[in-house]
Amino acid sequence: MAYGKTVIDFIGNTPLVDASHLVAKEGVKLFLKLEGNNPGGSVKDRPAFNMINEALKRGDIKKGGTLVEATSGNTGIALAFIAKLLGVNMVLIMPENSTEERVKTMRAYGSEVILTSSEIGIEGSRDLAFKLRDEKGYALLNQFENNDNWMAHYKTTGPEIWEATNGEITHFVSAMGTTGTIMGVSTFLKEQNKNVTIVGAQPDDNSRIPGIRKWPEEYVPKFFDRSKVDQVIEVTEADAKETTQKLAKEAGVFAGMSSGGSVYCALKVSESIDKGVIVAVICDRGDRYLSSDLFE
């Protein structure tokens, strides 16, 4: 029986499941990377651990110190439990319209949670994080500029996908939020095969999809490199929601709306090819959205 010293030891090595029946097109395979199987329930466990662990190694933060970070949800949950296990205090800032499950989960792990006005969104939360860093001397990971974010996926997610598909992957599809996942996986996969097509899911101008963003220019993550994304597909809130429900009912995959957006784009890709192996990221689990109208 496998065991670890803490739940941190079980971050990564998530399942890759065959969902080709959703495509129903001979010659095209669709696989889903179930990141909700991470201990904290999302893909964000990977960068959260890497950012804190590397900062501790460098001496940027010390055990007993306090970190502050802005989050829309999943990164905050991951930081909350990982920080405590690594001996660091955590202050998390997020918009007040975040789901109740997320806020309560962060507090359950022992983090302080500050809610900002929904009118200023995650951008306002990011601004407050910088302010608290300057005024209170907190350390700031700044996931939107931190190279340890995308490097987590370069070191783990990308290699896992490459190995699980025996190097046969032709298309990788991911929601774009902080863009850490797509940057890290793209960098790794392109090193193995420059012909792998990297596809990013992005909301259209009229849609709000938790976990997927179309950032104002001044807030675009600093490490985002547009040249590493071959195609961007826009998805509506309605399409993301419908696909999320489809995943639950037809694939037994209970996930959040960003995963629905990712798979919607993967299905669009499948329509344009006659042969290929598509891998789409399932970012988190659906249980943290039960207080929303996602499954109504």
From TrEMBL:
Pfam families: PALP
SUPFAM superfamilies the UniProt entry points to: Tryptophan synthase beta subunit-like PLP-dependent enzymes
Gene Ontology terms for molecular function: cysteine synthase activity
Record's keyword terms, sorted: Amino-acid biosynthesis, Cysteine biosynthesis, Pyridoxal phosphate, Transferase
Residue spans crossing the bilayer: none
Entry cofactors: pyridoxal 5'-phosphate
Signal sequence, renumbered to the chain: none
EC number: 2.5.1.47
The keyword Amino-acid biosynthesis is assigned to this record: yes
UniProt keyword Cell inner membrane, yes or no: no
Domain of life the protein comes from: Bacteria
A biological-process GO annotation: cysteine biosynthetic process from serine
Coiled-coil intervals, chain numbering: none
PANTHER family on file: CYSTATHIONINE BETA-SYNTHASE
Family: Belongs to the cysteine synthase/cystathionine beta-synthase family.
Protein name: Cysteine synthase
Gene: cysM
